[in-house]
Amino acid sequence: MTAAGVALESGASAPETVLAVAPLLSVRQVSVRFGGLAALDSVSLDAAPGEVVGVIGPNGAGKTTLFNVICGFVRPDAGTIVYDGQPLRRLRPHQLIPLRIARTLQGVGLWQSLTVVENVMASLHRRSRGDIASALLGLPRSSRDEQRLRVLALASLERLGVADHAERYPGSLPYAVQKKVALARALVSEPRLLLLDEPASGLSEADIESLATLVRELRRHLAVLLVEHHMDFVMSVCDRLEVLDFGRVIASGTPDEVRRNPLVTSAYLGEDVPGEPYDGPSAGAALDSTIERDVPESGQSR
Ligand SMILES: Nc1ncnc2c1ncn2[C@@H]1O[C@H](COP(=O)(O)OP(=O)(O)OP(=O)(O)O)[C@@H](O)[C@H]1O
Ligand SMILES: [Mg+2]
After folding, report:
1. 56 lines ligand 1 (CB under 6 A)
2. Is 19-100+191-291 a domain of CATH 3.40.50.300?
3. Which ligand 1 atom minimizes the distance to the CA of 247?
4. What is the rounded distance in angstroms from the CA atom of residue 64 to the CA atom of residue 175?
5. CA separation for the pair 224, 48 (Å, rounded)
6. Residues ≥6 apart with Cβ < 8 Å to 82
7. d(Cα 200, Cα 104) in Å, to the nearest integer?
8. Could you report the per-residue pLDDT of 196-250, keeping only the tens digit for each?
9. Is the pLDDT of residue 14 over 60?
10. Is 34 in the pocket of ligand 1 (CB under 6 A)?
């Protein structure tokens, strides 16, 4: 199967048919520098509708920076991003919803002074920052608009099973519930491209299992880019993986291919790359759980 391809079901006697689906998102040779640090170094990847592309790598590898570039929060120093056939240039955060791009933030990133339902409603604003500021400041708005947004927000919360908490403030809720609210907030705009930054972090095994079911269901309708350290989750939901280390893509492929790649093991564990081709089980075992590499907080030590 090609990077951006999906296999179609075929009749019993017919050979497997492969349909190449044009990528919805193409990142090409993107580089980002923060002072002397190369946070991203010539990174390229694709994501097509119908697939979950995992972006993995040790702490500080550049995963969140990649999401920030795609969403226009960070300007790349070089490279291009093409979305739905159009180059994304000088993208502003408020343009994401009309483009049907949504993301969850590392952590939860909810507005603590808004209720759960207000958090989801606020994300639906399609216009300028000023409008969101109005919402946050409680300035008057049309009650019909308000009602429409509330219905959509409640439906999204219901889908994640957290509508009962609609009138609560995020800070009063368990972390797992806050994560679900954050996901409901991303899904309410019916994205075509969904960027999930560590959605499983802090969740119980049971919550991670239901998250995996949800991601598999979502993948039928959209392209998902998933950053995650929880390797069992990554391996079970991703169709392809891109592995970042020190801002560079060091490996790409199916979860099995990546699991067996000694460069990946080396990146996670800081081991020397073996000289001989690797064919044993231990490298994969290294990726069987949640592994994070400690890096200095500044991240400027490279
Ligand atoms: N705004 C910024 N200014 C300066 N350096 C930054 C900035 N954002 C990120 N960095 C640095 O860029 C590097 C990549 O950071 P990034 O947050 O993208 O890593 P990550 O792969 O998401 O890590 P983690 O798994 O810990 O979330 C790190 O060294 C980080 O310290
Ligand atoms: Mg990150």
Report:
1. no
2. yes
3. 14
4. 20
5. 8
6. 25, 26, 28, 88
7. 11
8. 999 999 999 999 999 999 999 999 889 999 999 999 999 999 999 999 999 999 9
9. no
10. yes
